[in-house]
Structures
1.
Amino acid sequence: MALPQEGSPERPLEGLSAVVTGAGRGLGRAEALELARLGAAVVVNDYGRPGRDGSGASSAGPAEEVAAEIRDRGGRAVAHTGDVSDFRQARELVRSAVEEFGRLDVLVNNAGILRDRMVFSMTEDEWDSVIRVHLKGHFNTTHFAAAHWRERSKAAGGEKVYGRIVNTSSEAFLAGSAGQPNYAAAKGGIVGLTTSTALALAKYGVTANVICPRARTRMTEDVFAGFQRPDQGLDPLAPEHVAPLVGYLAAPAAARVNGQLLVVHGGMVAIVERPRVQAKFDSKQETFTYDELDALLTPHYADRPAGETFAAAEVLGLTRG
Ligand SMILES: NC(=O)c1ccc[n+]([C@@H]2O[C@H](COP(=O)([O-])OP(=O)(O)OC[C@H]3O[C@@H](n4cnc5c(N)ncnc54)[C@H](O)[C@@H]3O)[C@@H](O)[C@H]2O)c1
């Protein structure tokens, strides 16, 4: 297997190249800095629009600042200011990693926007734009990175290559979020995309995992405004609590971690189990009748706690310790 030989315990990503989307601010910035600290050459992608809803003019500023920060610390980085929701620009993004650093090894899909509204008030544009940036954005880069890895594997006579995808979902999908139907749906879609990609690419030596992070960023500054930063030490809501897991998932050590969902924040990582079957009913004849379903399902749900749904609200209570 064509694994890089340069990796050391301190710099496990030495010799690898990574793309991080939406890395001009917030979580993506912390993740790009961490990947560079661990030795990776990084393409820092961000279209740099000023609004967290994706509004305003694009700006090269945020991506270039983070790329410069990495170079100032002795790392290798270039900025890319494309929009990941645009298929062509996503292709250029993946291509730029290959052109700049000779190959792509790690793809961190992180770019995202918010347009919150209750489902009865949400406009078509609020729905479409959030699905487009998160779900289509994740697909676009994944498509071109996957094609790159498949081609590399073919060129190596079918040998496994090195590839890591880290996608970004949210507790808004896991626990449900009444005011974010577009966002919760996009983040659920990203989980489906991750398990599909994990199955499809395993034979090429590529893993795909998904994180549900939590951090104080531009996106969540109002949600977490009530959670004070401590006077000393790291803020439990600092994006720097999320970045180490992304570094680990990108590294050779995580080869056996594939198709997994991990919740991460504040010095804690929780591995979420796949959905499990809670109950099963069989029809008496070949198929069910209405009456039969009524007789089986109505008492079943009558006994279950009110308000319990498929959403895993309990994840919201996870803390370190
Ligand atoms: N902050 C949290 O608590 C939290 C919780 C769960 C999930 N997330 C997810 O983490 C990711 C990062 O969020 P954040 O909190 O750091 O937000 P942020 O707003 O601080 O950063 C997101 C960055 O993505 C960039 N971006 C947006 N759309 C883009 C596009 N189409 N192309 C290129 N760049 C684009 C923005 O310019 C911005 O710099 C998002 O996917 C978000 O949904 C965050």
2.
Amino acid sequence: MSSDSIRGRADNRRTENERGGSVNRSVRESAGNDSSNERDETGTHSGPLGEAAEPLLRVKDLVKYYPTERKGFLGAQRGAIKAVDGVSFDLHRGETLGLVGETGCGKSTIARTLMRLEEPTSGAAYFKGRDLFTLSKASVQALRREIQMVFQDPFASLNPRMEVGQIVAEPWVVHPGIVPKEEQRGRVSALLERVGLLATDANRYPHEFSGGQRQRIGIARALALQPDLIICDEPVSALDVSVQAQVINLLAELQAELGLSYIFIAHDLAVVRQISNRVAVMHLGRIVEVGGEDEIYARPTHPYTQALLSAAPAPNPVGRKERKRIVLEGELPSPVNPPSGCTFRTRCWKAESICSQDRPQLIDRFDHGHPSACHFAELQILPAAGMA
Ligand SMILES: Nc1ncnc2c1ncn2[C@@H]1O[C@H](COP(=O)(O)OP(=O)(O)OP(=O)(O)O)[C@@H](O)[C@H]1O
Ligand code: SF4
Ligand SMILES: [Mg+2]
């Protein structure tokens, strides 16, 4: 797909399956490629543009447990689902951090706690220096101007009884005084055209649109308040592959144009790669490896990342030929009763006794590497295209 194939203009609107193709990587690269960034010993980076700035968002030891109660012979037994169990990361302006991992590993819980839709059990998250978790209700409301979300299911997240124009303008009702009433119609038209829809689509209802178009409406709504950060929770998982590329291209273009930062959540490593500067691989509530897109896909060090990559489709014949699929045996352990030490040990072919005793820290074990939480982390060199 050429770089101008999805411009988000009215004259450029296409149906979902009209054109497929790969994501315009040059757009992402123009917004900054992680490999050129400075990195400190914890794997946190300066911004994608190379500036050693304060991060836009700093998450420190985020924990979210959901209490459980089970009735048995011995009475009620209390426990907890350890949905997020000590997650830390930085996000810089203009950067996209991909969060990837199997179902139930805590990706959406991180998103919901950062949005203050759920209260964290402990930890801190500093957005432009302010601790999100100590903000008052009124301040949280104001914060929603600056942090927006795009959801997986574009149909469920759009009110079927509202016209698209009302949906896109709704944030201005919740946050009055931002866009004067008389300007709203024109602003809605501009937003719809910017995401590749028609201004006249404002008068239609969500059910009249395809999945990809509905996701564009969701993106237009997220842009209405001109946020700094958009948390995209599986924004393309429900879409056809060809449409996924179009929506990801749109997000990348908007990022380059508006300087947006994204947390981009998906369970598919190939999808996350298309837009992320850095990728954090999660397993059972923890980040087990984090690094630049090139590092994670070409030099993974954690066995779990290596297994996930071995199962992902290789993009070229060399990768396909050299692929050695790592089949993980055993069930994904429960977040109610996670294994001691390394939570991956029950499925890890490299596990030794220390793995059940000591929780491996997320640290950079290689001079030129990136942090991973494995006692026996090893660089695996994959072909340049990765995903082998
Ligand atoms: N409100 C809740 N109450 C109890 N447990 C919850 C709640 N929300 C999530 N969980 C549990 O927390 C864990 C993490 O869930 P989460 O939705 O964050 O995972 P995820 O990585 O987003 O998964 P998926 O890829 O399926 O969306 C899961 O075990 C889930 O069942
Ligand atoms: S710490 Fe041990 S069990 Fe965990 S990933 Fe490394 S080798 Fe496997
Ligand atoms: Mg989720």
3.
Amino acid sequence: MLYEKQRREIIETARTMEKYGLVRMSGGNVSLRIGDLVLVTPTAMGYDTMVPEDIVVTDLKGNIIEGIRKPTSDLKAVLYILNHMPEVCAVIHTHQPKATALSLVADRLPLISTTLIDEVKDEVAVAPFTISSDEGMGRMTVEYAGNALCVILKNHGIMAYGKTLEQALSAAVYLEESCDVYLSALASGREISVLTKEQAEQEAAPRGYYGQ
Ligand SMILES: [Zn+2]
């Protein structure tokens, strides 16, 4: 079996998504590019019982290289992202409720917290609606990514991406936290305090104090 270690990391990432309430049941998917190959979660399978053999290996055109399962129904969208964002290796799709709720009432998540700058890198755009299981989700992600590690898909969920699974997962989790904060503030009906460009640049500047 190809890439057993990475298959286990994909399953662990998917279980962490579920732990933080970003997906339920078999919702969402996780993908990892390794060279010219892509490891993806299977469609319509829960993550708690998923085993390394369930992960599907495809090439960048979607041809199955190894696997006994059908790949995620969003494979075309994932491949579009990987083929158009060469710096990205990991892609996570979730239906996380706070970000999806925000997509119903706003066209972006502005820079409202230090966490958003540190973990998602920029404000996050809400891309126009596209149907699920379609390449359009990938096209919208590439078009609306900007400098951020996430795009919110209107009336659907989010795409998070990065160099590693850890980076993409962290972006998805902290996007959800920031959307929660923003929605709470919006509900107050009072003016929202958004970080200035200068504050955002100060926060983003490397300081080297954080992390093990
Ligand atoms: Zn979806």
4.
Amino acid sequence: MIMRKNLTETVLKLEKSQRIFVNRSLNMKSIKSIGYDMDHTLAPYNRENFEAIAFRATLEKFIDAGYPQELNELKFDPNFVIRGLLVDKERGNLLKVDGHKYVKLAFHGRRPLDKQERHILYNSESFKAHEFLSIDSFFALSEVQLFTEIVDYMRLNPRKIEKTFSEVYSDLRKFIDLSHQDGSIKNQVMAKPELYIVKEKYRFNALLRLIEAGKNLFLLTNSKWDYTDVIMSYLFENAHGDFKKWQDYFSQIIVGSKKPAFFIGDNPFELLEQSTGTSSEIGDTLVKGEIYNGGNAKLFQELTNQKGDEILYCGDHIYGDIIRSKETLNWRTLLVVEELDHELPILEQEKRAFEEIKDNMAIRESLDEELHRLRSLINSTAKQINLATIKNDKKKASSLEKEINKYKDKQIIKEHEISELDYTINEKIRLRSNKIHDVWGELMKVGLEKSRFAQQVEEYACVYTSKVSNLRFYSARKKFSSPHDLMPHDV
Ligand SMILES: [Mg+2]
């Protein structure tokens, strides 16, 4: 009983950016294995530095391929594009969509689209989100940033690039793949990981705590062995006396996993010979200390003798890591949403502003009801005037006229009050979200509505948090309970 009290108190004292938020109840007692993605999950990136080299390396390939030299002048802006946006490759537009598939914000290059343009292009008929590219991963940010800059260049310099926006995007994809293949990005990170990877102070504590509690940890990354080894060594080598090598933390290590194919396909596992880089067939189990390449989740479960719901997988990619593992295999999922680290403290500061917005909205609702009542009165009085006129009852008609005019005056005042209040509410919402991001606002909201990203997080991630090391604040036997088990009428 005493232990339970202490734990509850510890959780209550946590800052919001240290907490784990629960969509679906998760009992850690029934979790045998915890898997980790590497990039942006175990290994947080210095995004500004990393995206700048990805932007530059890809831009150089555009110029090599005969695009105008002037593109060299394009500047990398780490702050414009955020995750959760959709890209309309055909029109060169960036969109922020709410949970009801309504396009609330849109840009063509750097030019904002007004309400009417958004209506004509997207909101006048049913919006098909799957026809657009969704920015789910951090790696896509520099890619889309470059696309946005080129679209803007095309807007300001018509006919200098004789291609459609979709064709430019296909080239962009090709050049990014090339930059990955020829090592223009990877080699720079491997040469100086300290510039690109963030060494979090508590990066190994959560792992240790879970190992001590008897959990089996595994690494499952799409990165290749050479890159994985450099990054993981940089982060974990000699970080703790009992775990000299980073490999010591994990019971299974899988690289080059090709997620989401790992979760739905049937790729075989290959055993990697670390020194030579050659591979051979695996035995009938996955051995601790060995490195495996490729593979698939079904076989992983068989070889490790586990059921889907006994595995918790932690990743940062809503589609590649979370949706697929949850949907096809019923793995439990923890989504790392690192943006929360920046957003939650601001939202805490803005709590009062949020309360004011809610109060104003309640006033708005009662004004609306009063307006509705006035309109009904005006309608019924008009009918009575009609009747009095038909009956030639001039006296009654004239007294009713006076009455209806009073109502109409009041109606004008109410309408004015409502439009003023609407302006105040919108301004307050705008100011609040500008404090988080001056273009797109909160990741999980559009205005006060849930964003499409938030809706996916809610649907697919069992739990989510700002960094994976936050698991250290909770017991390895913790039962995470979801407030979503309540219906709106229960609250
Ligand atoms: Mg990742």
